[in-house]
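worker-03 picked up job from queue 'complexes'. Input manifest follows; two sequence lines, order preserved.
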Amino acid sequence: QKEVEQNSGPLSVPEGAIASLNCTYSDRGSQSFFWYRQYSGKSPELIMSIYSNGDKEDGRFTAQLNKASQYVSLLIRDSQPSDSATYLCAVNQEGRPANSGGSNYKLTFGKGTLLTVNP
Amino acid sequence: KAGVTQTPRYLIKTRGQQVTLSCSPISGHRSVSWYQQTPGQGLQFLFEYFSETQRNKGNFPGRFSGRQFSNSRSEMNVSTLELGDSALYLCASSSRGGTQTDTQYFGPGTRLTVL
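worker-03 finished. Artifact:
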């Protein structure tokens, strides 16, 4: 069973602090990794995608990937109350090669970490 | 560009009935995936369609089925509904669906309640 694990939280940080969200995955062949944000009662929206080892920054968000450790994280700098949501880590599991006409698109999601940013 | 749309947004059914949910992907997107989200299990992959063909399937019973039309719109069907099928059903579309760098965009979901 290929799994994606996240700390369920809740993670509570003060406004302006750095929030650190972590995710581990079991399938060593996984190639692409995504962070989605989901507000209560809403559908997930993509925050970051990362495919190579290292850091990827986009505004206040930084995704970090370490394939050797099978670990991906999301840092939110200068956290705002509007960042309060559930953050879902998703991993695209290895499948048939794209050029075979098949699909290697089968996202496995963690159960999410609830983040609360306190004013 | 309009986003992914799903209809209906809310449904109430009773055990034993069947239900059909509809999803219209972002214009130009050819891949449509379906997910079930429950508080206990989180988001779980149901199946993915590309060019009217099911290419990937999750670990759900045969009561869950789907199809995709030539305009990329997709439907999923659940037959013989059980109480445990109560969930938020999410559809997501992507442009190519066959490359590792493709990105999925989610629709607002259909909230199904089985009584």
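worker-03 released lock.
Residues 96-102 of chain A have pLDDT under 50 and may be disordered.
The two ends of chain A are 40 Å apart (CA to CA).
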